[in-house]
Amino acid sequence: MANTQIAAARSGTITEEMERVAKRENRDPAFVRQQIADGQAVIPANRHHDALDPMIIGREFATKVNANIGNSETTSDLETELEKLHTAVHYGADTVMDLGTGSDLDAIREAHVDHSPVPIGTVPLYEAVKQAGSPEAITTDLLLEIIEKQAEQGVDYMTVHAGVLAEHLPLTDGRKTGIVSRGGSIVARWLEEHGEQNPLFQIYDEICEVFAEHDVTFSLGDSLRPGCLADACDEAQYAELDTLGELTRRAWEYDVQVLVEGPGHVPMDRIAENVRRQQDVCDGAPFYVLGPLVTDVAPGYDHITSAIGAAIAAQAGAAMLCYVTPKEHLGLPDDEDVRDGLAAYRIAAHAGDVANGLPGARDWDDALSEARYEFDWREQFSLALDPDRAREYHDQTLPEDNYKEARFCSMCGVEFCSMRIDQDARADGEMAQLAATTDLESSPAAEVNLPPVGTHDAERSTGRDVDE
């Protein structure tokens, strides 16, 4: 039997990783074990990733957020990539996917695994194209070689585009934007050239064996995800989803954990439908969604258009959200874009958890609201999702220290501050006094639903002294 988290869970064993996850989620370890055993949650934890602080992804747990990073031919050095990793972890990424397509991929990947406290994901198909020189030159042997190498390097989960089949491609002919998944387009090109079935589908059993050996988690890629609202929920998307359901069950037969990736661009009124359908077709395997974007008209603001959809998806049962930055569709994001994207998605994830009534999730909101009412500015800043941004905006108009004790801000001023007026009325005895009652130290909330965001050791995630 494979030595994986799901194999241990099925045998009744609670692993060290399950114990750690239970502590972070404030849940019973036995409940964690059962969720893993049933395939309803995953702990991406390659046994070679020594720097990892284990986490869990599943609809019964706090909603998680992934950040994509990676180099390109024009931006490709190890130090820059480690800085991207640190920025992502600092602003609250629960996992990080390295989507690099530039040079030094092995060295960068190994550095990420060596220094990252969060799970690292990859898309091995990208490296296969780089090595082969073109999509059509890829071979099954090359794919398996790269997948095995990345597993040995310590990658915790991999996107595998095995669900798009030759018979699915004609279903995309009536779309507005065709195939927008990078991996999906690569596979489609290969299929058109060779006239054979998807090479990743051909060697899927062999991939399962590699994943079982190293405890790598599948992230089954949605190669035919919609790239615009007009293409959402079409026959092509759902045909591939049916295949992903079959692949989920095949992976479980090998004691391999599975995430299933989802769209994309979806109108607000059809997001819950997407989540429900995936949960049904894939027997409850965790759903990992990109957005979805709820409108196509806002280039430059797609961290907002997608965070709206992400919050709805989280409430509907999506387990992890892949962030989108303001640069989506426009360019390679920089540190500030990563910060904005992660802030938008941490908000969406937390809002979903509050809406779903996760234990203690709203305590953070209540504590900050109480500090706001008391004009405890320093406590407001410390409780904020992004304390530096909150302090910066306040201090743009009222920077002096004495304003940290003021019973107003520059929005309303002294005379028109509603909370000051309310406090004065209560002090005069006209209404009952209000008191802060939230104790975050005793909150049952999961770690990600309590401040501060980004609590991992910076030195650990960059591999160097942060004061250098």
Q: Describe it for me?
A:
By secondary structure, the protein is an alpha/beta fold. It folds into two domains: 5-356, TIM Barrel (Alpha-Beta Barrel); 362-456, no CATH class. The protein has 19 helices and ten strands. Helix 13 links the parallel strand 9 (287-290) and strand 10. The longest helix has 21 residues, at 335-355. The N and C termini lie far apart (47 Å). Substrate binds at residues 68, 97, 126, 161, 181-183, 222-225, 261, 288. GO terms for molecular function: 4 iron, 4 sulfur cluster binding; phosphomethylpyrimidine synthase activity; zinc ion binding. Its EC number is 4.1.99.17.
Topology:
Layout: H1 5-10, H2 16-25, H3 29-37, E1 41-42, E2 57-58, E3 64-69, H4 78-90, E4 95-98, H5 105-115, E5 120-122, H6 124-132, H7 140-153, E6 157-160, H8 182-194, H9 199-202, H10 204-214, E7 217-220, H11 235-253, E8 258-262, H12 271-281, E9 287-290, H13 302-316, E10 320-322, H14 335-355, H15 363-373, H16 377-383, H17 387-395, H18 418-427, H19 458-462
Parallel strand pairs: 3-4, 3-10, 4-5, 5-6, 6-7, 7-8, 8-9, 9-10
Antiparallel strand pairs: 1-2
Helix pairs in contact: 2-3, 4-5, 6-7, 7-10, 12-13, 13-14, 15-16, 16-17
